[in-house]
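Run folding on both entries below.
>entry_1
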Amino acid sequence: MSPRFETLPRDILQTIAFLSASSSAFEPPIEILHLLLTHPQIYRSLRVSSAPDLYAHIFFTKFDTRAPIRRFSGQLPDSAFAAELLARCRLLRRVHRVDFSSAGLKQDLWTALWMFLESDGLNERQLSQVNFSDFILGLARSELLRDTTSHPSRPDRINLKPTSIIVWLLCLGLHRRVILDMSTQDRDALYGMIFPFIFLSKKTVACTSRPTACPSSPSRVVSRVGVPGELADVSTYLQNYKPLVPDPSTAAINLAFAIFEFNRPKVPYHVPKTRAIAIASQRVGPTQEDYEALASYLTPLFADSIPIISTENRQSSSPLSIGFTSNASRSIMHDIQFSEIWNNLSGKMSTYVPISTYVPGSLTGVWEGVHRTVDSPLAATACSPVNPLVTMVIIKPMHFSLTEYISDDLSVGPDKGSGYLSDLLDIKRGPSEVYIGGRTYRKYQPLNSNKGESNAALSDVILLGETTEVHDHAWGPHKFTGRVHRDGLIELLREQKHEDGDAQGLWIFEGRLHLETAFLGRWRITGAPDDADHGIFSLEKSHDRNEE
C-alpha cells in the first residue's frame, strides 16, 4: 500500500515543492500554496519558518542573485532570501492586478526599486512579464498628478513619501520605445508629472518629515518568516530601516531628455554641409554635420539595454526562449549612484561591503551630449486642449575631454564652501600635477593607481578639461575646472578657452554619474536672473578612442 502523501519524509516533500514551484521561471510559486492547504502536517513541514532553505532555493531560480551575494559577501541567511521572495511575489501580484491601493504601497515600491538595483536582466524580465511599465505609469498618474496639482510651483513641498521612488522607477523601468509610442497628450502629461523634480535640490531624500522627508508615523513591518519586525518604513532581506532615495532630480532629468528627444532639433540647410566646405568658403560656426550630430544624441536609459518582450514571449516559461542573457555587470552600474542606500545597511549587517561614492577614473575621458533650457508645463488641467509644452528652448551640444587629479592626502579634504569657486579659478599647473589651496593633486594614472586610492572614497578630486577641436570650430572653445565632492556631486565651471573670446560669463554645471557612463544634472550662469540662463544637461562618455 502506498504511503499517504502527508507521511512522506520532509526532505522528499520539500523536493516535490521545489520542483513544482520552480518549473516556470516567470510564474508565481502558487503550487506551494496548494500543497500547504492539503494537510496540517504538510503545512508544518513546508511553511516559511520551518523551511526557509526551500524558499531561498526558489528565490535563486526566479531572481538575479549576483548583486546580493556580492554586496553582502555571500553571507545572507536563507531566511533573508525567503523573506525577499515573498516580498517580491507580493509586488508582482500587485502589479499584475494593477492595484494602486495605499496599504503596503511604499514597501512594494521599495521592493521594486531593489529588483532594478540588483538586476542583471532576470529581475527586469520578471517585472516585464506583469507589464510593470504600464503599472508605474498608471501609479504615477495617480500619485504624482495629485501632488503636482496641489503644489505646482513648490517642488520642496511635494509629498516625498512614495513619489521620489516612483520617479526613480519611471527612470529605470521605462524603455525609450514606450515613451516614443505614447500619444502627445500622454507624453506631455508625463513631463508635467516629473517637472517639479527637475530642480528639486535634495542630495538624498529620506522619507521622514516635510520638507526633507515624508510625514507619516512608522508602521510595524512584519517579517515574512512570521517574526514581528522593528518599527520602520521598509524592509529588505529582513533588515528594517528608513529608506534613503538618491536625488530624484537626476531621474527626472534623464526622463525629461528622453521626452524632449521625440522632437529633435531641425537641421538648417542654409549652413555649409561639411567642415571642409565651411573652411573653403571661409564660414565659421556649426555645419549641417554638426547639427545632425546634435540631433542624433540620445540620453542613456537603463531599460534600453534589454529588448522589450513581445506579447507572445510573455507567455513563455523559460528565460532562454525569450532570448534572455544575464549580464553580470549590469547591477554594478548602480553601485556608486545608490551607494548611500547600500551604506545605510552597513550598521545593520556585519557582512555588508561598503561602497565608495566615487571610483577614480570614472570621469577621465571624452564626454559628449547636450545642454538646454527647460520647457515649462503650463498651468492647465489634464483635460485642457492646450499643449502643455513651451517649445521656445535653447539646445547646444557639449563635447569635451576631462582629466582627473587626485590629492596625495586622502584624508577629508575641502568640500563645497564659501571659497570653493574662487579656489577652482586659481589653479596652478605643473607637468603632471596641479596645486590648489595648499594641496597637491597628481594626474590620475590607471596603471599606477593604488588600492588605497580606490578604497578611500577619494574625498578630493580636481577635474580639468577643454572642448575638442571639432567643438571649437563649430560651437566655440571652452575650458573646464571642477571638483568631485565627498557625496559624489560633480561640479564643473566653464569659461572661454581664450581671454579674447566672446564673454559668456561663468557657467556652473552640477550633476552626478548615472549608469557609470552618463553624467546628468543642471547648469546655470552665475549672477544671471534670466530664465534662459539655467537648464539641464545630459552627457555620455564617448567610446571612440580616437577622440581621446
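>entry_2
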Amino acid sequence: MFQKVNSRAGLSDGVAQALLEQISNGNLPAGAKLPSEAVLAEQFGISRAVVREAMAQLKSQGVVESRQGSGVYVSPHGLVMPLRIDPGDVGSLSAVLQLLDVRRALEAEAAEQAAIKRTARQLEKIENALAEISHEVAKGNDGVLADVAFHRTIAQAAGNPFLLNTLRFLNQYLEAAVHITRNNEAQNADFARQVHEEHQALVDAIRAGDPVSARHMAQTHLYNAGRRLKQSAQAAASLTGQTAKKDRKLAGPSSRATARPNSTGKQAIADTSRSRKRKTNSANTAGIDT
C-alpha cells in the first residue's frame, strides 16, 4: 500500500505526508482504521519510532485519533485538511513575494470591510496604532511590533474572524522579510516616509468610510511593500558582493580562489527564515508590514 521511504532526512514528515495523501484521495476515508504500527513500519521500511512520530504529527493536526485498546483511526473530520506551509518553502525571495500577493488580496478585503463596519472605538484604536509606529521608530526601535498591532486592528475592525485568522496564519511566514525591510527602512528615509504616507492614506480612507479607496490604498501599500522588499534584497546582494571583492583584494592572489560571498539578498531572507523556523508555530501576528 505504501512505498518505502528512502530519504534519511525528515522520515517522519515523509510518512505523515504519505498517510495524508491516502486520506485525501479516499483510500483511507473518515472513520477508517489505520494499519498497525508494526505493519506501517514494515511497509515504509522504517522503524516503529518513526511511525510514532508521524502519528503524533497527524494527531496534533486532528487528522487521526487514537481509540483506547483499538488502534488509530481517521478522525470524522480527517478529510478537512489543515492549512500548512513548510517554512522551508518560503526561504526564497520569490516565495516571499508570492506570499505577499496572497496577503495583498486579504489585506485589501480587510481594509474595505473595516471602512464599512468599523465603529468609532475601532477607528480610535487604528489611529492610536498608527501613532504608535511613529513613536516606536522615534525611540530607535524597528517598529515591527507596532506594525503588527496596526494591521491587526484593521483586520479586527473588518469583523470577520476567518479573515483575521487567515492573516495571522499567513503573516507568521513573513517575519524574516519584514525584519530585513525594516532594517533597510531605518537606513533609508525615503522608505520610512513612503510607508508612513501609505499607512496614513489607508487610515484616512477607513475614517472617511470609503471602502473603494480603502481597498485601493491597501493594495497599493502591499504592492509597494513587495517593491521595497526586492530593493532591500538587491541592496543586500550588492553590499555582500562589494565586501567579498574587498576581502579578496586584501587577502591577495593566493586566497582569491577560495574566497566566497557570505550570502546574496535571496539567501539573506532564507538564512533569516531558517533561524526563525523554530518560532513559526508560536507566531501570533495578524499583520506584518514591509
